[in-house]
Every structure is written in C-alpha cells, then in structure tokens.
Specification:
Blueprint: E1 3-7, H1 23-33, E2 42-46, E3 49-54, E4 72-79, H2 85-103, E5 109-116, H3 137-151, E6 154-156, E7 162-164, E8 166-172, H4 176-189, E9 200-204, H5 205-208, H6 213-222, E10 225-229, H7 238-251, E11 265-277, E12 282-294
Parallel strand pairs: 1-3, 4-5, 5-8, 8-9, 9-10
Antiparallel strand pairs: 1-12, 2-3, 4-11, 6-7, 11-12
Helix pairs in contact: 1-7, 2-3, 3-4
C-alpha cells in the first residue's frame, strides 16, 4: 500500500485560522471538504516508493503558481524520533521530491530547516543528550548531507534563470556542542569551497531569550541566525493520527482496505511551508504536507 501524503491547503484561507488551531484540525477540515472523486487523489512514484497525495491543490481550487516568483518560501521538515538514519534520509528525499514535483514546480526554497524529533534545546550541555531516541552526531550529519545533496539540484525558473532548489539550510534546537560538532563534520568532509553550513538555528521561544553565551558567540563567528519558533514539541500526537486515518479510510475508496485500528498508523514526516512576499511584507501562504503510513 502506498504511503499517504496529506495536504492542508493554504490555512490562511480557512475559517479555522486562529492560534489555537492544531495541525490535525486543519487536516480533518480539508479532508471533510475534499471531493470523493479521483480528482482529489494523486499517485506519485518516487525512488523511495509509491505515495498517494490527497487532496490535491487543484481539487481545493488552490494553485501555488498564482504567487509571485519573488516570494520567499521557508520549508521546515519535521522528522519523528526513534527512526533510523536510513529512514530519516529517505524521509528527507521524499519530502523534497514531493515539494518540487507536485506543489511548487520551478520554485526555489529560500530556507530549508531540519527539525529532528526528540531533540529539545538545553543550555545545559550535560542534559542535552537525555533523550535516548535522537540520532547520534554522525547520524545527524548524514541526514544533513542528504538534505544538502537533494536540495542542490538545479532548475530553470519562469524568467529562464538557473537556480538551485534550496538556497539556504538550517537546523532546529541545536545546542553549542551539537552545532559545533556538525560544523566540524561538514568542514572536514566538504568537497567544495565554501562548505554549505546552516544559516539558521531555530530555538523554541521559551529558551530563545536565555541563550548561552557559547552558542551566541559560535553563531556570530560563522554567521548563523538564532531565530525563535513557536512549534509544539509534538505536532501530531498519535490519537490525532488515529482519527485522521479513520477519516481517510471511510471517505476514499482507494484506501478502504486499510486498518483503522488505533496505533496502526504513524506519521513519517511533516513539511511545513510558509510563503512571504518581501515587497509587501506579508505572509501569503501557510501550508503543510503530512506523510502517514502503516506502522511497521
């Protein structure tokens, strides 16, 4: 069975838009409104497998191409905790391919930020590794390298200008020690000069106002922006995944045979995309893609 990739649509255009609205509420809302016809579904074959995308932008009467070519896209990819390096790399490759082949053809990502599940910022270096299910430093580097490789492909935009798919890369919740180690690994293995290093380190808003001096100094030295974010630690709790799985199976004929038992599905990755118009200084789009698959 193909994995399911769910699309929220542009949440700025929904009546649910408010700070307390959760990702699952946006997904349930858009699934309820999506037509039950095959126009709502798209099968995408990738090197990582078959993926069923629903609903499609066209079925929601939304088109990403209507936005200005000068808009800046920030894409933040959330990976769950407890997965292998190989699975994390596969998730990164799939998310980037879905972005460029289905949703934003011929469009550049200004900032692509990696968020690793279980990795929570701490200014106490001794406590920083208390989460047992996060990837090792070597694993983080391998996933980073896979993202850079996937994002370094070129395309020709509508103005006939050659661009790389991703302009800048970033990370989230990296402590001084972890960021320093990643930079060392990047620089020691760089095949080109200058090496591609993070330009952003997302830190949760609760800790962003009391950052350790060591992190501030390191970031200034190499030109990394320390930016606050308000993303919850768990974007999509398991009960919400179970609820969404039931909705999908009950509505779409193509997945009628899938299990609806609690805990039978899990989210594989979440790609949160925001689009900003710098000339008008306004946010024009806020969308998410959520990959859900059967639990192994």
């Amino acid at each position: 069975m193909p994995s399911l990739i769910l699309y929220t649509g542009n949440t700025l255009h929904t009546s649910l838009l408010r700070p307390s609205t959760t990702l699952s509420q946006y997904l349930v809302n858009v699934l309820d409104k999506a037509p039950e016809s095959t126009d709502s579904l798209l099968t995408l074959e990738t090197p990582t497998g078959s993926h069923l995308i629903l609903p499609t932008p066209s079925s929601l009467n939304q088109s990403s191409t209507s936005n200005s070519i000068n808009d800046e896209i920030t894409a933040k990819l959330f990976l769950p905790s407890g997965i292998s390096v190989e699975q994390a790399i596969k998730n990164v490759q799939t998310a980037i391919q879905v972005f460029k082949d289905v949703f934003y053809k011929g469009t550049q990502i200004k900032y692509f930020i990696l968020s690793f599940g279980g990795l929570v910022f701490s200014d106490d270096e001794e406590d920083d590794d208390e989460h047992s299910q996060i990837l090792t430093d070597e694993g983080l580097f391998k996933v980073w390298s896979a993202a850079v490789e996937a994002g370094s492909t070129s395309f020709i935009d509508e103005n006939k200008v050659s661009k790389t798919l991703i302009e800048q890369f970033g990370v989230s919740e990296f402590s001084t020690q972890r960021l320093s180690t990643l930079l060392e690994k990047i620089n020691s293995s760089a095949k080109s000069s200058p090496a591609i290093i993070p330009t952003i380190n997302h830190i949760n808003a609760a800790d962003c106002c009391a950052l350790p001096e060591s992190l501030i100094n390191l970031s200034k030295k190499v030109g990394i922006k320390l930016l606050a974010h308000h993303d919850p630690e768990n974007l999509l709790p398991q009960p919400d995944v179970d609820l969404i799985a039931v909705d999908i199976v009950n509505k779409f004929e193509q997945v009628k045979k899938c299990s609806t038992e609690p805990n039978s599905h899990q989210w594989n990755w979440i790609l949160k995309m925001t689009r900003f118009a710098p000339d008008r200084q306004v946010l024009t789009s806020n969308e998410s893609l959520v990959s859900i698959g059967l639990r192994a």
